[in-house]
Amino acid sequence: MPAIVLVGAQWGDEGKGKVTDLLGSSVDYCVRYQGGNNAGHTVVVDGESYAVHLLPSGVITPGCVPVIGNGVVVDPAVLLDEIAMLEARGVSTDRLLISANAHLIAPYHATIDKVTERFLGKNQIGTTGRGIGPTYADKVNRVGVRVQDLFDPGILRQKVEGALDQKNHLLLKVYNRRAITVNEIVDGFLRYADALRPKVADTSAVLNSALDDNKVVLLEGAQATMLDVDHGTYPFVTSSNPTAGGACIGSGVGPTRIDRVVGVLKAYTTRVGAGPFPTELHDADGQHLRKVGGEYGVTTGRPRRCGWFDAVIAKYSTRINGFTDYFLTKLDVLSGFERVPICVAYDVDGVRHDEMPMTQTDFHHARPIFEYLDGWWEDISGCRSFEDLPKAAQAYMKRLEELIGAPVAGVGVGPGRDEVIAIRELVPAA
Ligand code: IMP
């Protein structure tokens, strides 16, 4: 049975949780493969809304095994709080597995994240301040602390000493902050060891043997393509690889085992934090999208920047991820516009670009070239088939499909789990 990868095709917050939820009981394992508690999935089940930041959204689905893969960065305090919150609401987290190789976010990572941003001044990335970038930096710099280190206090101490060595110089001398002691970090980490120990596993081995046993494994990306550290709008990106290739690295599942790569695409565009955004709206239409779409960050509560659909980005995303299918979310939010613009190309200093510009400079200068489609006024949340949609909404969806280069397998028409138009099965029949 297949491994399926699910990736956001824009700048995040496309509604990936809804797709995971829709796949529901057909998924046996739901795996986070990168990022940390900078993410935020909202899953609505039976009218109950659950916001999860670190756990895979499949944790809500009964019978599904949620897995935190090696590519994730784990803040143990946040993880245990999230587990406690779900348990208190009657959601079992007993099946959760955590990779022994996942890296730990320490309090000093969040401190460095925040002071670095402050020092960047007007060049700020607008990070979530959760310590994500500094934790990945330590991983690549080979001074990271991993989940498995919690179970060997001697090694843990050595690693924390190594990690703090340079950081304390930086904190004291450059950022004018107090030094952090090895003891406070080690003692803090060790407090979590017993609670986490039963959940820690060689998750790559577990997932590969699940695939051998014909189980369905969903590899769920957090953030999105345009926030990818290699393929996104660098440096205004997160510090990991949400794109499909990252699913292999961050889970220990090889590329030959992946059958479907599903892109999640919002019917318009949003972005949180700084960085270029060619179709951004600064007018009443942008405010309307934010209000009707509820465009406020699940993690930070920040208002999201809103704009029209950008087909250049979507087409680029299809290329980078090799999408086999798309799931289009929030089409209902577009009801009520006279005309609905789609960005089909960019004007960069007088030159038309049909593809993503090669350089950051050109992308910062990109101005959208729009095609205008007729809008629709009907409430489409009750539509359950493509034919139920108003003709103008059908035309909008068909035009997107032509531009983005992969078929639309499903459409979200409202926040509820049933408010979906299913066009093609995402999990192939056994
Ligand atoms: P970091 O991931 O906290 O380092 O933040 C880097 C950039 O990614 C910032 O612009 C954040 O706003 C953005 N970002 C991180 N996580 C998410 C997410 O889940 N959705 C949307 N944007 C995100």
UniProtKB/TrEMBL annotation:
Enzyme active site: D13 (proton acceptor), H41 (proton donor), K139
Residues binding Mg(2+), per UniProt: D13, G40
SMART domains with a match to the protein in the record: Adenylsucc_synt (SM00788)
Annotated binding of GTP, by residue: 12-18, 40-42, 304, 330-332, 412-414
GO CC aspect terms: cytoplasm
Amino-acid positions noted as binding substrate in the UniProt annotation, renumbered to this chain: V298, T299, T300, G301, R302, P303, R304
Cofactors: Mg(2+)
Location (main, coarse): cytoplasm
Keywords assigned by UniProt, alphabetized: Cytoplasm, GTP-binding, Ligase, Magnesium, Metal-binding, Nucleotide-binding, Purine biosynthesis
TM ranges: none
Entry function: Plays an important role in the de novo pathway of purine nucleotide biosynthesis. Catalyzes the first committed step in the biosynthesis of AMP from IMP.
HAMAP family: Adenylosucc_synth
PANTHER family per record: ADENYLOSUCCINATE SYNTHETASE (PTHR11846:SF0)
Protein known as: Adenylosuccinate synthetase
Organism phylogeny: Bacteria, Bacillati, Actinomycetota, Actinomycetes, Propionibacteriales
